[in-house]
Amino acid sequence: MSKKTWSPDIFDSLFQENPDPWDFEKSPYEQEKLARLLSCLPQEPINFAVELGCAVGVGTKALAARCTHVLAVDGSSTALALARDRCSHLKNVSFLEAFLPEGYPKSAVLGCDVIVISEVLYFMAQNDIKKLVDYIMETLPPSASVVLVNWTGETDTPCTGDDAADCFIQACHPYQWLPVHAERGETYRLDCLRSVVT
């Protein structure tokens, strides 16, 4: 298992070989996971959501139905082109190419209500996950939420899904952001974090 964060060219190659390499659009696993993610979002109206790792925009489209505005971020220009095409009819979605953690768009996400990080963290080395937490915590208001989704099956990535989620959650503790909801599917876990500072 490689311990280095996967680079953008790896993802570009994957999306160039197959425009939906993880079958986001049709896989029962992906559909169930997305439904569970949406059910964990705050019930009150969501003004501004940020999706880190939007891939081909399937989740983006679903988020757009729940939010006044969605900023969808991905490090792969190939994936972003596909996502833009999928969501071209949606006026409340904008896209940004940025590779995490260093490219985390601090100014663009200021004031967001929710950050969704689905199937992204385990592609990152643990030190980069910790950096991402630091960047996120600089930009989130105490009223916001962070929703994580991670595959928990076998994977040849820098972290397992469980290790990646646990690393993120532990790095949030000093900022007094803690899990307020956690659940496990057959091959994924979902964690929702909020600030305990009022």
Overall average pLDDT: 92
- Proportion of residues in β-strands: 15-25%
* Biggest beta-sheet profile: 7 strands, mixed
Radius of gyration from the CA trace?
15 Å
Pfam families: NodS (PF05401)
Protein name: Methyltransferase type 12
GO molecular function: S-adenosylmethionine-dependent methyltransferase activity
Keywords: Methyltransferase, Transferase
Overview features:
about 200 residues; alpha/beta; Rossmann fold; seven-stranded mixed beta sheet; 7 helices; 7 strands; about 35% helix; globular
Describe the structure.
By secondary structure, this protein is an alpha/beta fold. It has a single domain, classed as Vaccinia Virus protein VP39 (Rossmann fold). 35% of the residues lie in helices and 24% in strands. The chain has 7 helices and 7 strands; from the N terminus they run ααβαβαβαβαβαββ. The protein has helices at 8-17, 28-39, 58-64, 77-86, 106-109, 126-139, 161-172, and strands spanning 46-52, 67-74, 93-97, 114-118, 145-151, 177-184, 188-195. A 7-stranded mixed sheet has the order 3-2-1-4-5-7-6, with helices on both faces. β6 and β7 form a beta hairpin. α6 (126-139) crosses α7 (161-172). The protein is globular and about 45 Å long.
